[in-house]
Amino acid sequence: MGPSGTGKSVLLKHLIGLVHPDSGHVFVDGQDLWALDAIELNEMRKKFGMSFQEGALFDSMSVYDNVAFPLRRSGRTPALVRQRVEECLELVQLPGVASKRPSELSGGMRRRVGFARAIAHEPEILLFDEPNTGLDPIMTDVIAEVILGIRKQLQATIVTITHHMPSARKIGDRLALLFGGHILFEGSPEEFLASKDPAVRQFVEGRAEGPLTVELEGASRKVLWEGR
Fold first, then answer.
1. Phi, psi of 27, deg, nearest 5
2. Which of 83, 99, 115, 138 has a 20 to 30 Å separation from 21 between CA atoms?
3. Are 212 and 224 in contact (CB under 8 A)?
4. Exposed, middle or buried: residue 57 (CB in 10 Å: 0-12, 13-18, 19+)?
């Protein structure tokens, strides 16, 4: 979690190896992503599934073809592709929409089709980039339930970006606050909500007044949010 523009989506792209870090390292299963050669990096990426903001579906394709896209690239037979597409759509609570186009779906349905595509090849690690932005409260809760169902079914590690505190409490074992390019706080939902850290309190309570300043690794205090 964290305010807009603080680097949450960029962090996810670092985790999956789409962006090269300016400094530091990203380790997955004990391996430094950027110490791998191109072939090894592509193999490592197969451990991941990612659902981008708004679903990022191919508008020219049907729902079926969107979910089938990564499966066909893996060399599965048409029969196995169809079986897996049906399984994925069932898991995200969207049976019977395979023939529709993304333009025929609601925002929440498009997000779930994006989920289905992300889990198609049964990844070990799933990244969700703001899966509930712009959705009504009921659909936001549906999305949280779908994420919990996916985690139970796949036994996958899931990293989710969200601004929605109820969703964060529902799906998160650990919550982290990213502010000014630094993780300022990380803990259980209970620890997060009970924290007296001013940045955490301002985020949880949704207060715009400021300015908010914090100590960063012993450096002088840095203004993170000007407020009003």
1. -110, 130
2. 115
3. yes
4. buried
Residues 164-193 pLDDT 10s = 888 899 999 999 998 877 888 999 999 999
Please give the model's pTM, rounded to 2 decimal places.
0.81
Contact 3, 161 (CB under 8 A): no
C-alpha 177/C-alpha 76 separation (Å) is 40
Handedness of CA 140, 142, 167, 49 (dihedral sign): negative
Query: Going by C-beta distance under 8 Å and a sequence separation of 6 or more, which residues neighbour residue 88?
Result: 67, 116, 117, 119, 120
Taken in order 148, 152, 154, 157, is the CA torsion positive or negative? positive
Find the helix or strand (DSSP H, E) in which 13 lies.
Answer: helix 8-15
Question: What's the whole-number average pLDDT of the chain?
Answer: 84
**Percent of the chain scoring above 70 in pLDDT:** 90
Which two tokens mark 45? 């990426």
Is residue 42 classed exposed, middle or buried when 0-12, 13-18 and 19+ CB atoms within 10 A define those classes? exposed
Name every residue whose Cβ is closer than 8 Å to that of residue 76 and which is 6 or more positions away in sequence. 84
Note whether 102 and 137 are within 8 A (CB).
no
Dist CA 178 CA 182 (whole Å): 6
What gap in Å lies between CA 49 and CA 40, rounded to an integer?
Answer: 17
The first and second tokens of residue 102, run together, are 């993304």
